[in-house]
Amino acid sequence: GVWVIRQVFDRGDAELAAASAGHVPPGVIARRDLRYGTDPDERFDFFLPPPGTPRQAPLIVWVHGGGFVAGSKSSVANWLSVLAGHGYPVVSVEYRRGASAAYPLPVRQVNAAIEHVEAKAAELGVDPSAIILGGDSAGAHIATQLAVAITDPAYAEKLGVRPSIPPGRLRAMLLTSGIYELPDLDGGGLIGAFVRAAFRGYTGETDPAKVKGGELFSTIDHVGPTFPPSFITGGNADPLTAQGLKLAHRLETLGVKTDTLFFPDAYQPPLGHEYQLRLNTAE
Q1: CA 37 to chain centre
Q2: CB 149 within 8 A of CB 134
Q3: What is the distance between the alpha carbons of residues 252 and 231, in angstroms, rounded to a whole number?
Q4: DSSP at 122
Q5: For the whole prediction, is pTM greater than 0.90?
Q6: pLDDT tens column, 217-268
Q7: Closest to 174 (Cα-Cα) out of 128, 218, 136
């Protein structure tokens, strides 16, 4: 099941990359496959604004999607290059994708990547004193888990994460097409089969009750009033948008500053999962 998911994601990522290549601003400085650890997956891409572009802040750290078992940092390279073109330095983190079990290793790896960038800040030419953390799809889940860990010591201890930065340095969240709670593992059809294969690949279990730390998975149940200000978006034809709406409502109820971009149900053309990566569309 994981093998099939990876073939589908690889093909989709290649199509997106080809369609969006013409939107990459000229002059963006890209450094690829820099290491932040010893594991083969512990690499990151680094994008700097073109010379002469007014430098913005904070530093953006991005976590790609892929159903927890597929995808790669190359899938978001063009989109992140656009952000760099607007003046933002961007770090794009690779992490272990599950084939039998990985949860919650990717959260720890993104945390380690931030620690590494902080240590190498002078060499990289960035100011890590203020960070925006973001992610798409499964990457949004990993990012929110780390954000909760950074802002809630009790959650961090249960998850086995020692945050690399204090809460005050995590200035905001950018969350696109994300998953924020336990998926429906009883669904039918191809979508249901996909969800079950991805969940087993990521956690090593088919029963959520057997997942070590599984009670921490639904970040929507663990965000608190100290969670960073957040921007949340999703397409009207994306089945995960219901979770984005729910998270936004939860954060607003907690008094967390929350900006959203959602679309009416009847919006045309329908915007599917990861609509924001389709740079050749107005949306």
Answers
A1: 19
A2: no
A3: 11
A4: H
A5: yes
A6: 999 999 999 999 999 999 999 999 999 999 999 999 999 999 999 999 999 9
A7: 136
